[in-house]
Fold:
Amino acid sequence: MRIATAAYPITWLHSWDEYEQKLDHWVADAADNGAEFLVFPEYASMELSSLAGEERAAKMETALSSVSDVFDRICETYANLAKRYGVYILSGSAPVWDDGRYVNRLGVFDPSGAYILQDKQIMTRFEREEWCVEHGNPLNVIETDLGRFGILICYDSEFPKLGRALKDVDVLLVPSCTEAMHGYWRVRIGAMARALENQCVSVMSSLLSDEARFNGVDEATGTGGVFGPPDRGFPADGVMALGEIGTPGWTYCDIDLDAIKAVRKDGVVLNRTHWSEQDMRDLSVSVATVSNESS
Structure:
């Protein structure tokens, strides 16, 4: 399959039509370049808070609620685009008010326009301390005509047990929103580590922003990247494709599912198969002291 992963810049919008035209341009561009699965980043839908006006977009409560209020319409837009261009799309996530709390939610849309929703599992300090966003629905293994997919939203990618829960997927999708390069590298290292452990491919997308009028997403940097296990059939450094930091656009990569099957069966190492052996070793830790005293 050919995958397209975005370094997506949020912009100040003046109408819903402008938003739809922007997304249409992005999806059309990827489809024209042969992409079958498109990956937008975490909190990309926050640009819609601009439609509520500067005062509301600048305040936490009104910025979140203004986006949550149009989440069904966001889903309708992505569903129509997936159907129009015959592609799968992972949508830009949004804060959604659900059962008395905000969750960080996105959707995977198939070429028929049908979709499944996925929420973030573990919140960053900013999300829990300032935005009061909480964990939502559990992880899903998403079966498609292109293969099996799982989603680890940004910070989720930094937790091995979440990655291990998705050990049977072919591709891990890692949409991210990182304010600075430290955050970008944390998520990228997490995405690469999960690809190593599960002997799969991970796909990272990044939000871009330098728009001070947005609450919480006024600064963001990163790029699109696709990573595999550094083993047979994959690059020695695990980097299959990589965009330029801070440069808007798609990063494309052709993913061979047979290569994933082959490395899981007969790689130089078999991290995925040998995972359970950790359980035998972590119970036998002892404390040893090295002395520099002469005998």
Q: What stands out?
A: The mean pLDDT is 96. Residues 181-198 form the longest helix (18 residues).
